[in-house]
Known about the structure:
- The chain is built from six helices and no strands.
- By secondary structure, it is mainly alpha-helical.
- The chain is flat.
- 10% of the residues are buried.
- The model is unreliable at 5-20 (pLDDT under 50).
Amino acid sequence: MFRRKSAETPSTTSTDAPVATAPTPQGKGRPTPTRKEAEAAARARARLPKDKRAAAKLARERRAAESAKMREGMKAGDPRYLPKRDQGPVRQFIRDFVDARVSFAEFLLPLLLIIMFMQYSGTEQLMSFSNALWSITIILVFLDSIFLRFQLRRQLKQRFPDEPLKGTTFYALLRALQLRFLRMPKPRVKLGQRLPQKY
């Protein structure tokens, strides 16, 4: 009358249980670009030429535009575009100091051209005058350069007492030898202008 119960009982452990695994990191490892950035990138890709010749032309135009931008920045004295030798408040003061005065050195090149013309003129009087003019020019440039160095170093010691003075005289003389309209960066002060105390 009574049914015999099976002695088999379900196992409490199973070998088919899933093994826990480390969660896979989601995402691309970088922030998702905004819609504005994505649209700008898409426009940039659309502007890219398909053939190599057009791509090379576009690259040349971009380099030319960048070079023009750097030249304009250098002319304006923008610190971002200045070469290392022109950077810093000390070099800026030296440029202003030289540009605010009239130097005999800047007339050296024009006088040299005049003297050469006299020498090749074949006229004895002009040749003798050119020799005298050359001697006077060299003496004036030498004396003016010494005076420039003396004034400049005195100003630098007052304004920049903790800065080294190495190379400052050469930098000033090199700028003084250039004609005013050819100097780079362009002069930002007028002749005889009073210079600011702080740079």
